[in-house]
Amino acid sequence: MKLSRSALAADQTHHIHPFSYPAAVREGRFRRIVERAEGVYQIDSEGRRSIDAVSGLGCVNIGYGREEMADTIAEAVRTLSFHPVFWECTNPYSAALVEKLDQLTPANMQHFFFANSGSEANDTAIKLVRWYWKLQGKPQKQHVISRDMAYHGMNLLSASLTGLQPCHPQFSLPIAGVSHIMAPWSWVNGADLDDEDFGLRAAQALEDEILRVGPERVGAFIGEPMQATGACVTPPASYWPEIRRICDRYDVLLIADEVVTGFGRTGQWFGQQYFGFEADITVLAKGISSAYFPVSAVVLNTRVGETLSTNPEELYHGYTCSCHPVGAATALKNIQILQDEGLVERVRDHLAPRFWQRLEALREHPLVGEIRGAGLGAGLQLTADKASRSFFPEGSGIDALVARYTWDKGVIVRDLGADTVGLMPPFITSDDELDQIFSALRHGLDRAL
Ligand code: PLP
What number is the ipTM of this complex? Predict the structure, then answer.
């Protein structure tokens, strides 16, 4: 579809864009106008083809514009364009997705509730935690502990869980009953310790907070196995197993927000498998449908799921489009593509090793302080001084500058803030495209120096 002048003017004047500077949009300073996308490429209004090295927002894992996805979605729309799974109803698409997920997911993922976004799914997870503890006769266990730098979404509750400070003041957040502990960000919090000791210290912050709030009041801890938006903070191996032990010690439910890590980003189907732990509740979105249709899910282990799914009372929670038949068909086809093409194995065995080899080659670059991540996801921590680990002055926008210069060479990377540049290429990226990504990134780094 071509963009008309009048539509662009309407967008400029009447569209309040998320995570944008409204005044810049009003002045027509759009960063990019994308008209089409295919494979790993976005094609903009000036006809430029850029490799999308961040898979949209860490979601388009199977690549853009796939014919078989279009066919599947069209067929589902023709057959059953809507049907609510409310009031004890179901349909072939929704049921087939549940069957597929049940077969695919590890033993701690047993019961599924569906929503349309990561934000809704995280809100749902916390509501289910509250209800679970009430059913257990512990209604006071309502407090949730999250982490600084976390990104869990933008609804009132999920934005409260989010630990990126700029997301709070405009909306008087966080709401009561949510607190944050330090992120397992060794670059900032762990200069004095080796990785493994730092992981234990970062996990200790959870125990300290549980004891501060009172274990009888803490219902859950939530974290992304590897943070994405939050500077790609990635904990050392000692962190998650210790978090699991602490949650068990104080009878606190562990929620893994796998909105980004779920469905292969780490080279395992789920980030918990990569980091070696099992959550009680897992939150999925993005990669479940590669964002061809908005689909998200909250997955409960047997302990929580059996309690909730055998309760005789009505569940007073749900969304019009929960497990939408077209969404279910989309997710099913996406999962089938991941399986048929062995894309998760491709990430693990082929792409990730090459990706990290190329990342390692950037470590000596004067701007690069640290490289964090797992599988096919990484963040480059830029620094003004490697020895003192110093940040650039507030507002320098160094990561945006690197992203801008990288784009000059036809590759889209993401400025994550905190002087960090993020990379999350699609799972179908070829070796040649991977080389192009890194040659453009090196150009971006050199120019920003
Ligand atoms: N959780 C994580 C880890 C995310 O990265 C995101 C979005 O980027 C969300 C939750 C929120 O998802 P949504 O934007 O679909 O509401």
Answer: 0.99
